[in-house]
Design a protein that fits this description.
By secondary structure, this protein is mainly alpha-helical. The protein is 46% helix and 7% strand. It has eleven helices and four strands. It has helices at 8-19, 27-33, 40-45, 68-82, 89-95, 100-109, 124-131, 137-146, 149-159, 187-196, 198-204; strands at residues 62-65, 114-117, 207-210, 215-218. The strands form two sheets. Strands 1-2 form a two-stranded parallel ribbon. A two-stranded antiparallel sheet has the order 3-4. The protein is globular.
């Protein structure tokens, strides 16, 4: 379970490469092995090996999370790719009530047995511990390396984006693959965004209010 654009595609690619390391995975194989229960197309094609993905606010075993600002920025560009509009990024964030559905997602994710951050997806030891894989860390690292931003961008370029092949081809699904893009928003805007989500961001240890600087900052900078 995760809010959209929390890194679920990367997590699914990693799990597919761990379970089926000899398969040359793309977005189509990923959606077959780990179908989205929110989408009738992937549910119908699914050949799941035990995992399913959802962005709905339901009980789940794994909750994948990412900073609300990064989620909303990525979601904005995803929607511009498939459903282009004249709406600006700031207008989109305001329309979302600064991440109201993200806040509901975090509340639902509190009950999950496993809570996994976007940054954990690059940590072999975190994945070994969380998913209890009985293999060498080197194999987990290989799976992670196969799912680097560069590798996934090439897969998209070569094979496309499974059940949604159309859209604005000038906007890639694999757009940047970085964290903390929210810090590039105007200062007053990101302050309001973070203050609206202050409790959830503190709970997930994603950002905090710096009294000396008078602004919200990435928690890793403490």
């Amino acid at each position: 379970n995760s809010y959209p654009r929390s890194g679920s595609a990367k997590l699914k690619f990693i799990l597919c490469n761990l379970e089926y390391p000899n398969v040359k995975h793309d977005f189509t194989t990923m959606s077959k092995y780990i179908p989205s229960i929110d989408n009738s197309d992937t549910r119908a094609d699914g050949t799941s090996f035990g995992y399913m993905c959802t962005h709905s606010h339901i009980d789940s075993d794994i909750y994948l999370y990412r900073h609300v600002g990064d989620c909303l920025i990525s979601e904005y560009w995803f929607k511009q790719k498939f459903y282009p509009s004249d709406q600006t990024l700031e207008e989109f964030i305001i329309e979302s009530n600064y991440g109201e559905l993200w806040r509901k997602s975090v509340e639902a994710g509190r009950a999950a047995k496993i809570q996994l951050s976007f940054n954990d997806l690059n940590n072999p030891k975190a994945l070994e511990k969380i998913f209890d894989y009985k293999c060498d860390l080197s194999n987990i690292k290989k799976a992670i390396d196969k799912c680097s931003f560069k590798s996934m961008a090439k897969v998209e370029s070569d094979k496309g984006f499974y059940y949604l092949p159309k859209g604005n081809k000038n906007i890639p699904y694999m757009r940047k693959g970085t964290s903390n893009q929210w810090e590039d928003l105007p200062k007053d805007f990101r302050r309001k965004l973070c203050s609206k989500n202050d409790g959830e961001l503190k709970y997930l240890k994603l950002s905090y209010y710096d009294d000396l600087k008078g602004e919200y900052r990435n928690y890793d900078t403490r």
